[in-house]
Amino acid sequence: xxxxxxxxxxxxxxxxxxxxxxxxxxxxxxxxxxxxxxxxxxxxxxxxxxxxxxxxxxxxxxxxxxxxxxxxxxxxxxxxxxxxxxxxxxxxxxxxxxxxxxxxxxxxxxxxxxxxxxxxxxxxxxxxxxxxxxxxxxxxxxxxxxxxxxxxxxxxxxxxxxxxxxxxxxxxxxxxxxxxxxx
Length: 183
Hints:
Elements: H1 2-26, H2 44-47, E1 58-61, E2 64-74, E3 86-97, E4 103-105, E5 111-115, E6 118-120, E7 140-142, E8 147-157, E9 162-167, E10 177-182
Antiparallel strand pairs: 1-2, 2-3, 3-8, 4-7, 5-6, 5-9, 9-10
């Protein structure tokens, strides 16, 4: 009976010690590093992280590279035309999933656009014009280590100044990449 109590006491003490090691390992290190910065301080290059991306540039969010490959204007065609004074702006994106998990992409849920500071919706007509022919939309999943290429179109005024598209592939996060197209 005494050996059982002793064994239980030793097991309890070991669990307390292991818990202490985990807690100590999870605490932040505030000691000075080689560069003289205290732990937890961002380096100068991290502080200057880019907030807007243009055509040909890549933003990385949660191990996913999002590249705005191109932006093409379209006046429409015989069947699909924008309203008078407007045009279609067709944006092509490439999404490379460098994470360990599948990523879901939805043109409706993951892309939020503003033209000259006014909220605008995706234009399905713009995605059916001849300039968009043969291109996929940005809807589906991207497996870990794989890529997706597709387009999203917006109807904008012909004389717009700034089209900004926020891409957020994680609906539970506020972290998004902002892409800007200007004339």
